[in-house]
Amino acid sequence: MKKEILELQKLMREEGMDIYYIPSSDFHSSEYMHPHFKCREFISGFTGSAGDLIVTGDAAYLWTDGRYFIQAEKQLAGSGIELMRMREDGVPTIPEFIAEIAKEHINTDKSKAVLGFDGRVVKNNFSYIVQDALGDVGLDYSDIDIIWEKDLAGDVWEDRPEFDTNGIWQLPIESTGACAEDKLEQIRRKMDEEEAEYLLLSDLTGIAWLLNLRGSDIAYTPVFYSFLLIGPEFVNLYLTKDAIRNDAEETIRRSIAEGVNLHIRRYEDIYDDVSALRISEYGTFMSENSISYALFNSIPDDVMCIHVADIVGNIKMIKNETEISCSKNAHIKDGVAVTKFIKWIKEEMRRGAEHTEIDAGDYLKEKRAEQEGFIELSFPTISAYGGNGAVVHYEPEENSCAIIRPEGFLLIDSGGQYTNGTTDVTRTIAVGPLTQEMKDNYTYVLKSHIAFADMRYREGMTGKELDEMLRKPLTDVGLNFNHGISHGVGHVLSVHEDAAAIRSSNELDAGIKPGMIMSDEPGVYIEGEYGIRTENLVLFIEGGNDWIINEPLTCVPYERDAINKDLLSETEIKWVDDYHSWVRETLSPLLDEETATFLYEETKAL
Q1: Does residue 531 sit in the same domain as residue 558?
Q2: Global pTM value
Q3: What is the band of 508 on the pLDDT scale with cuts at 50, 70, 90?
Q4: pLDDT digit string (tens) for 515-542?
Q5: How many domains does the chain have?
């Protein structure tokens, strides 16, 4: 067993715990986290961005989804940790697993099971899901004891990175399209509808969007660690000492109207302020999806809590006209960078140059950095050659990454944060000769991609409904992929907005609505051989007669050398030709003559 697991089990015995739960999370349920919060990664050795760890007295289990199965198998090998493949037949959820252990304790030891976790990094709604799972085995919440004030993983991690944070900067109205005062007024109207006196916000992207502020506390997502409490006549913003020291208050005062009555409070004061809440006749309005177990337990027992969906998230996922216009501009700049990269890698392979997967990602980042308003990448670049392309969320490492050879596929999934938008694009590039199977499978993926792009939607249609029909061009020929076909994208925020998504299991699905920016990304993954994914970001718009259609934002050519035209219908061929014509006309004036000539060849009619 991995030594970190053994050390954790020793602490569990000292605390009288039977189960210890370590999620991939920080105090705000962020997707990407400050290094200080990567406890699950430290304890387990698994580096994927999604995965939760359960440790018992004599075993350990890691849950992750289909994007990471191959990666997790490799990284957990020899650790003694059992991989639990989420949503596979016979694999229990974590709450179901906890319920079974609790039942076993009661049946054998006649005692309750003791569950431990750090309540600051576990979502409050986890307790409700566990309660439901207990009910399914004939128990209730009183049949387990919970110790939630112990960060045992942190106690094991002796050289844990410090929780250091940075300053805050204002995103200009030219990019946001709405001032913070107007956004707060919109939120307060929602609070009035729910008869809520207070709104407690923990989601970092929601706070950043609402106040038109951005930061750099987390890689790839320009947010800052904070809480927000909106009261009847005040707004309390809770910031870390580093943010306050870096003139955050002056930046905020410049960006927010005086009428907002904003107060800057210390980050850690949120627990005391929430515990001191006193209400009149209303309740506390909160985002259950991101508030932590510890923060919820700070709310006085006599305060009525209203459990609703994330109202800020549901508003910010509908982009306004300014955000849409800015995003289109960001994607054009991104298209210039990615097109230059495709030209470079193809030419380098033709001349016999030797480059690693990391070299390729670094060059693409350089091309993005040349674009006006570039801030940083929007997620770690997936630069995957050959068999590594079958690892859905593969991230190359310096000492083990592959050398790109002049044959087969290079899958490159990457994106940028710009001051006027967030991008995410995947292209599977032929860096040399392809087999017929590769070409056929590329074309089947393209057919699924086109089905998404060319479909007509009704408002409110959910991702779960759509998932099966959009996979049909693949499933009809016995192919499929183990990830969602679409996710929402923030505006100079997180590249993944989960409230908007198209996948078979999405509990947060808000339905399709005009103004959403989402991905279109089917794939095929042949383990040990190659991976194929084709991804654009699209904007959903009104299509007339109550239909919703989408238009592409991503402006990058497809891999023309990998398309088997015989597998496409005339309608699909026209779609590709029209898209390529738009890419060529849009990007050519922004490219040097040599790159424009290359683009012309890449976008000729099929």
Answers
A1: yes
A2: 0.92
A3: very low
A4: 999 999 999 999 999 999 999 999 999 9
A5: 3
CB of 552 within 8 A of CB of 521? no
What gap in Å lies between CA 396 and CA 398, rounded to an integer?
7
| CA 451 from centroid of its chain's CA atoms | 24
For residue range 453-466, what is the model confidence (pLDDT) as tens digits?
999 988 777 767 78
CA distance 420 to 319: 12
Strand-pairing partners, residue 118, are 149
Distance CA 48, CA 76 (A): 11
Same domain assignment for residues 138 and 208: no
What percent of the chain clears pLDDT 90, i.e. is strictly above it? 71
User: What Cα–Cα distance (Å) separates residue 440 from each residue in 56, 176, 567, 568?
Assistant: 47, 43, 8, 10
Cα(60)–Cα(46) distance, rounded to whole angstroms? 13
Last residue of a domain, one of 290, 316, 342: 316
Do 342 and 398 lie in one domain? The reply is: yes
Of how many residues is the chain composed? 606
Pair (280, 172) in one structural domain? yes
Q: Has residue 606 been placed in a domain?
A: no
Percent of the chain with pLDDT over 70: 94
Is there a contact between 510 and 317 (Cβ–Cβ < 8 Å)? yes
If asked whether residues 275 and 293 sit together in one domain, one would say yes
Give me the numbers of helices (H) and strands (E) for the chain, helices first please.
20, 30
101: which 2 tokens? 């252990």
Domain carrying residue 70: 3-156
What's the rounded Cα separation, in Å, for the pair 452 and 470? 6
Contact by Cβ (8 Å): 315, 186: yes
CB burial string 404-435: b at 16+ within 10 A, e below: beeebbbbbbbbbbbbbbbbbbbbbbbbeebe
DSSP H or E segment with residue 547: strand 547-552
Domain boundary among 281, 297, 316: 316
> Which of the given ranges, 236-250, 302-316, 471-485, 497-511, has the highest pLDDT on average?
471-485
Q: How far is CA 512 from CA 458, 495, 517, 550, in A?
A: 7, 18, 10, 10
